[in-house]
Amino acid sequence: MNKTVLIAAFLCPTLGFAGDITIKDPFVPLAPKGVIAHAAYMQVTNTGDTTRSLIGVAAPDYAMAHIHLSSEKDGVATMTGMDQLDIKPDQTITLEPGGLHVMLMRPSEPLTLGGTVTFDMQFANGETVAVSAEVVERYGGS
Question: What is the pLDDT of residue 127?
Fold first, then answer.
């Protein structure tokens, strides 16, 4: 690992990376008590020279975790599970409210403001990227 990457990882603990995939600014909005679904948002960047395929999410503190896409058509909101998310070379994909996100279902414990949610992003080549997302104040639109 080069010194620049090592320094960046030390100074920015929310930065996750493995190989040519970098995860930046992961967060989970605090959900009201009793809510059994949480969403995680972040930026995923492929710095490599080949397309990388995100094929799953593993979250030890949740019964299920999936990649989802929220959309709205003719005033009707829908959410669709995605089996694969391709990230082209030098592409950054933003997972954000109202669009792509990691859906986390049935937590083992309630979230706490300032806490963390950990999960692994799983890629088709067998590589995983560990993510530690901070639980932040909920805001409009999430």
Answer: 93
Quick one: 47 exposed, middle or buried, by C-beta within 10 A (0-12, 13-18, 19+)? Answer: middle
* Residue 14 to residues 26, 35, 77, 117, 131, Cα–Cα distance (Å): 6, 25, 30, 11, 8
Q: What are the tens digits of pLDDT across the range 38-78?
A: 999 999 999 999 999 999 999 999 999 999 998 888 888 88
Distance CA 128, CA 111 (A): 24
Which of the 8 DSSP states describes residue 126?
A: S
Report the distance separating Cα 84 and Cα 118, nearest Å.
20
CA distance 133 to 116: 5
For residue 12, what are the contacts with CB-CB under 8 A and spacing of at least 6?
A: none
| CB contact at 8 A, 106 and 63 | yes
b/e map of 101-128 (b: 16 or more CB within 10 Å)? bbbbeebeeebeeeebbebbbbbeeeee
pTM: 0.82
First to last CA, the chain: 36
